Amino acid sequence: MRMTGVLWMMCVSVLIHGCCCSLGLTERGCRRWTQKGNDVCCDACKTGNRLVKRCGPRPADLCKPCEQDTFTVKALTYECEGCNQCVGAQILLKACTTSTDTVCGCKEGLICGDGSCSFCVKQCGKGEEPAEGRTCRPCPDGTFNDQLHQKCKPWSTKCSNPQDRIVVKGDAFNDIKCANISEAKVINPPKRGDPEEAPIVVVIMIVMTVVLSAFITIVVILKMIQNRRKTKIPIAETPTIRTPTDDPKTLIAVECSFHEAQQEQGSSSESLNSGDSTNQLLMNGRPQ
Question: What's phi and psi for 156, nearest 5 deg?
């Protein structure tokens, strides 16, 4: 009969414990204590309990669970701490219990600013590091960062393998690169967003444009000169008019021309006179 009662009490205790756990309730009382006369003194409260009094006749009365929105992680304390609240850019990941504080996170693109995530900051990307004022700054020269939201680390000064040589210098995103070659040529990769690149590119483009324009101009001028030589118009020669002179040959030529003209006129006159005589004879021979 006595054994049956003990078993019944154990079943009830287990059932009550299971119900408390399923409801999220905290067991009450002292977890470890020391006997002092007729009383016991608590050395450690159960998880989520605070100390009510140090010594007493019953261990269950020495500690009690923390009130709502409070918690404790200490084994022996008289007061529980208030639970944190997720505000602003924070988001709730896990609600507060009597033995654990609230777990907060940050919205996308932000990251917790400390271990307890009491505030959020902008997440720094690769090639930069967190700075004052919860901002980010590029890695200083000679350092790099290939992780998210981490401090920049200095470049390695030599290769880990003594037979290797540095083939690529480090930049803001990567450490130096080494390779096993006899004579390695160090390559300086251009830094992203290097402000010195833009002026050099502009100067090169201007020089190339000027040289190309001068070349085209010279070619056009030479072509025009060549076409002008091919299409040259000959200049007409003006006849030379000679003035009369006292040269005997010239005078003889002029006199001959004059006599020829007179002979032609004389022949014409004789023809006219002979014609008139004929007409007169015909008229005389007609009957009256």
Answer: -70, 145
The contacts of residue 181 (CB under 8 Å, 6+ apart) are: 165, 167
Torsion of CA 189, 190, 193, 196, to 10 degrees: 150
pLDDT of residue 55 exceeding 70: yes
Neighbouring-strand partners of residue 144: 153
In this structure, how many other beta carbons lie within 10 angstroms of the beta carbon of residue 49? Answer: 28
Strands 63-65 and 49-51: antiparallel
Which residue type, as a one-letter code, is found at position 69? D
pLDDT tens digits along 13-45 = 434 444 443 345 679 999 999 999 999 999 999
Is the pLDDT confidence value at 97 over 60? Answer: yes
pTM of the shown model: 0.44
187, β-bridge pairs: 168
Token pair listed for 44: 């450690």
Q: How far apart are CA 242 and CA 246, in angstroms?
A: 12
Please report which helix (H) or strand (E) contains residue 55, including its range.
Answer: strand 55-56
CA distances from 82 to 49, 52, 206, 265 (A): 14, 18, 69, 154
For residues 132 and 124, give the distance between their C-alpha atoms in angstroms, rounded to a whole number: 12
Q: What burial class does residue 165 get, using C-beta atoms within 10 Å of its C-beta: 0-12 exposed, 13-18 middle, 19+ buried?
A: middle
